[in-house]
What we know:
The complex is a heterodimer. By secondary structure, chain A is mainly α. Chain A has a single domain, classed as Amino acid/polyamine transporter I (Up-down Bundle). Chain A contains 29 helices and 2 strands. Chain A is globular, with a radius of gyration of 26 Å. Chain B is an all-alpha fold. The termini of chain B are far apart. At the A-B interface, helix 4, helix 8, helix 9, helix 10 and helix 13 of A face helix 1, helix 2 and helix 3 of B.
Amino acid sequence: MANATSTQVAAPPRFKTILGYLLWAVVAIAAALCLAAIALNRGERINSAWLVLAAACTYALGYRFYAKFIAARVMALDNQRATPAERLENGHDFEPTNKWILFGHHFAAIAGPGPLVGPVLAAQFGYLPGTLWIIAGAVLGGAVQDFVILFASMRRDGKSLGQMAREEIGKLGGFVALLTVLLIMIILLAVVALVVVNALAGSPWGTFTIAATMPIAVFMGWYLRYRRPGKVLECSVIGFLLVVAAIFGGQWVAQSSVWAPVFTLSTVALAFCIITYGFLASALPVWLLLAPRDYLSTFVKLGVIFLLAVGIIFVRPELELPAFTRFTDGTGPIFAGKIFPFCFITIACGAISGFHSLISSGTTPKMIAKEQHAWPVGYGSMLLESFVAVMAMIAACVMHPGVYFAVNSPAGIVGATPAAAVATISSWGFPVSVAEMQELARGVGERTLFYRTGGAPSLALGMAHIFARSGGGQAVIGFWYHFAIMFEALFILTIIDAGTRVGRFMLQDLLGHVHPALGRTSWMPGVIATSCAVVLGWGYFLYQGVRDPLGGINSLWPLFGIANQLLAAIALCVATTILVKMHRTRYVWITGLPLVWLVTVTFTAAWQKIFSPMPRIGFLAQVDQLQAALRSGTITGAQIGPTQTLIFNARLDAVLCGVFLVLVAVILVDSARIWAGILRGTRESSVAEAPFVLSRLEAEQT
Amino acid sequence: MKKVLALRVLIVTLLRELADENAYRRHLTAHGLVHSSEEWRKFADERFRTKYMRAKCC
């Protein structure tokens, strides 16, 4: 009887297992079919639903099988082992948190402008290269990096990447990691500021809306501190309503003959406004501007991403851009360079981003209740970020190719007048007319949409197109365009003020070794000096970007991509070292292969950016070209000064690129020395994990 | 219906977590304090100090 009962009880799980296998087989077949559909389609427009399905099915497979394999075999995640959140619970940083809450928290922290802007720029190659890289890069690289670093930090009481690099690789590794992060921060702030400048230049509607967010944030700060302390959600709702009102106000300003000129600013004027803002915001009390804006931008960001997902699923727009464009040969107008390596560095955050390793070794490991939760939080959040990148790619590709290139191409490439620009773009096989562009600009309440480089305006156009088709039609497209611009600028400005502050702390940390007073965050002269140094650092690159005749994105975005991916290489070096030290040598390919790929891509890209003979790619070739023009006398008079500045800037970019390479090469060699020592048995293989403590939470539940 | 309610609770909890309202509640509970304007300001100052020493993602 007992046997019969046990047989009856055992049957359903077997049935479930078979059903499970069948289900996953269907998902795998669907993924293969969708990927084949988007990869093999030529000459016909493809529906965005194929991209969404291909991504969703591939993510599901990666999450269910690859991440589970890593969790079980490589990391041996153990719920019996108390996490730092449980052992060190203090009601502040260390707090066991529901895994889905933490998932949302971590996703909100890793989702920045990168996965939105990068795919829009990479769409110049067509939708296919970027989409495949986003999906494959995230499943095999980005999510793995985030997951392993989160695991490593969780096992080390929530230590940062720099601390882990110092402990696992050595003092040199820790110092190099800190220096690399600081330099990357400078480039990151410059490039995201450039995106905002290009989005707002000559746009009184956009400029007014973004300017209005500053007094709104100050009001929120006051409200939260003195009027209704602690009511952050209530305050954020009020702030959101005020920002929406500011968008409507912006429309009125744009139509006003008095106010429109006041808010119509050039790129240089906007650059100086943002530089001044960056300094003030980093010096002002955090509660007054930064914190309330950060709350607001987090909620708006999550809301817009959700809306965009719903909009794409509801509208299922067709992609207008082809699978491949003619610019796979490296002559693209947005940035120069072939698919390999430039597609893979242009899209960083949606596929693999070194910055995520800072978040995975920041707050998140201190909030994980059980070790198994690192799987959905670390790996799963990155998949969602990757999905955001796919949505951005879709938003870029729903535009007519001619419009896409007219918006994103700089005047230095396509011609200084609208007529010249449409002639150039049409000659590439992407027909577009001045009338079409004027009609589009009028529809969204802008004077012109030519030369709006940086990715933000074209993303806003794509998003507005999708939102308007979801409801409201052309009547509301202007609102949605400026809503999207506001959404992008809002959290980019949050990154600028928070990043300037963080850069200041890092610089103080470094300078504190030279002169201890400079390291004290309470010493005002040190605070002001280091704030100025950081603002001037990214401000210079921003100014360089807005003055660049080829469009600053051409030089700065690849530099940022290289830097970000090199940081990922550092994170993967740390992760690989930890796996080797854990005697998981046969699994080192899990972090080793993405590391090899990143080193190949970034070193190739950096080498080409420095030494390519094509002036649009190689910084030194650009220097030679400009010097030759000076020598031959084709540049004369007032143009000599700016040309010499361009020569200096190109040399500076080349040096910076070289410094990145040297720094990462140092960490690579240092890590390889440790791996070789451990594998040969000449070096002790000790990991710096916190000791095992039995989990009380798990015991209570079981 | 239960699942919808559970989802609603999850979303509200997530929003409160992102808004630091849950962290504030935990802070009050952990230290046996009651809410006051002064207590919020103390909590917020400490919270923001640590929060904005870390890099924000790109």
